[in-house]
Design a protein that fits this description.
Shape: globular
Strand order of the largest sheet: 2-1-3
Helix content: 40-55%
Number of helices: 10
Number of strands: 9
Oligomer: single chain
Largest sheet: 3 strands, antiparallel
Structural class: alpha+beta
Strand content: 5-15%
Distance between the termini: 37 Å
Order of helices and strands: HEEEHHEEHEEHEEHHHHH
């Protein structure tokens, strides 16, 4: 893992066990512990696909459940490795880890084909907007001050991320600004930016008929079909990892729908 993170300035993390399946950026100076799952990519397009509705539904289907609250546990081998990314910017396509920064600050993997690049740019831009708005909500400038972290002895600057310190009188309010509380409340602006992200990811899949009202069952059916198609094409090719197969007779679509229903009930 350290070798994979050595050449990038940030990487994607998600809590192993969490009520809500949220993904975050971690700077290169952070060494993740065992409670975080790591995706060694630095581009917003990959982040956007993972944070979108489709990957959330897929991961709820293939995850395990832990703790008193029966929260979903994100397992890379079942939740990530089996997930069929949009064609053209799958983990295999972005393994070089090189990025291109777009006007406005969002980033996409370098070397994308002419047909894939505008789709990835749309996903990356939507994801960049989402993370920017979440960060503003978590640390509103009127409530806190951004302070550089202490530098190690002998260093001119700190390799660690800045700290956000509450201004006097705002300590209790700032302490309540967590991603769990944000997704529990799910304000209208968060719903809107997530819907914009989902629309961009749907376009990357070529799902021109997608709307927010599309059922979880329909989404799972389409992802499963794509998963099985890619697995068939990769059979016997040792240079490519097999896409994990999902058995309809095992947990299947019905199990996925039940898992998503349990998650919505807990969030309500």
């Amino acid at each position: 893992m350290r070798r994979c993170l050595a050449t990038i300035k940030r990487f994607i993390v998600t809590p192993e066990v969490s009520k809500h399946r949220v993904f975050l950026w971690a700077p290169a100076g952070v060494l993740p512990d065992k409670n975080l799952q790591v995706v060694p990519r630095a581009d917003d397009a990959t982040f956007g696909v993972l944070q979108g509705r489709f990957h959330e539904i897929w991961s709820l289907h293939l995850c395990s459940w832990m703790g008193k609250g029966n929260d979903p546990r994100y397992t890379p081998t079942s939740c990530f490795e089996t997930f069929p990314f949009p064609a053209g910017f799958t983990p295999a396509d972005t393994a070089h880890q090189q990025i291109e920064v777009l006007p406005g600050g969002a980033s996409v993997p370098m070397g994308l084909t002419r047909s894939v690049r505008p789709l990835a740019c749309a996903v990356a831009t939507a994801a960049h907007v989402l993370t920017g708005l979440r960060d503003q909500w978590l640390n509103p400038p009127e409530w806190c001050e951004r302070t550089p972290e202490v530098s190690p002895v002998g260093s001119k600057s700190s390799p660690y991320p800045d700290r956000f310190l509450a201004k006097p009188g705002f300590e209790k309010e700032l302490a309540k600004r967590t991603l769990t509380n944000l997704y529990n409340e799910r304000p209208s602006w968060l719903v809107q930016v997530h819907e914009a992200l989902d629309a961009a990811v749907a376009s990357a899949y070529g799902w021109t008929d997608y709307t927010p009202s599309m059922s979880d069952n329909e989404i799972l059916s389409r992802l499963l079909a794509l998963n099985l198609e890619r697995a068939r094409h990769q059979t016997g090719q040792r240079d490519l990892p097999l896409v994990g197969l999902v058995s309809k007779n095992d947990r299947g679509i019905a199990g996925a729908k039940a898992a998503a229903s349990r998650q919505r009930k807990r969030a309500a």
